[in-house]
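Input record (Table S2, row 228):
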Amino acid sequence: ALVTDRPQDLAGRHVVVSAGGTREPIDPVRFLGNRSSGRQGVALARTAYARGARVTLVAANIDVPVPAGADVVRAETGAELRDAVRAAAKDADVVVMAAAVADFRPRTSAESKIKKVAGGAGPVLELVETVDILAELAHERLRADQVVVGFAAETGDDTGSVLEHGRAKALRKGADLLVVNAVGGGRGFGTEANDVTILDGSGAVVGTAAGSKDEVADAVWDAVVERV
Ligand code: CTP
Ligand code: CA
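Output record (cytidine-5'-triphosphate complex):
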């Protein structure tokens, strides 16, 4: 659809979207990262702008151009992303955490490059857990009427289906909406298309979408508009 075809149902709203993948330093030249391209977050920012919102995009190492119309704040690490999201969220009606945030970071980052020692044992990285930005926003509620949205990339396994894992995560996170993305088999990370189920905070299905990341983004905003 053309940008101008969209309803202006986010007019007057400030939405914050995080996108991309965080990088946690090991030393000055190395990091622990992930394969998030930032495409879904950028699609969310673009479509929110097209629906009339003021948009702040907190971008962590995205592989795609930033959308026109969004205020862009860059972040590298999970800690930087947390600070940037929280600062922007203070006056936001909606916060969408589409970024892939590292769950663990190296406890320390070496000040100089870690060198090989010929024939020696490799270094052992000690990892510590990072702050769960989404859960923190959802439980703390920086603004009383703020809609907090999370994303979850899930695979089915012997402990549960994609939806079962999504439901458990929806309850655990405390967000108003959780967009559950089935990954594996060519879906999800780095690909053009998505296949998502949108859950509310109780784990009930409130929407589904399959198709482009813009179509998924519009389905997310449809669910958000019913809540703001
Ligand atoms: N998230 C976050 N801060 C973190 C980790 C995740 O805000 N430190 C957010 C993501 O941006 C996403 C949601 O939490 O919106 C779900 O991320 P996911 O990795 O699926 O959930 P986890 O709770 O980290 O569980 P898992 O063990 O499956 O990785
Ligand atoms: Ca995680």
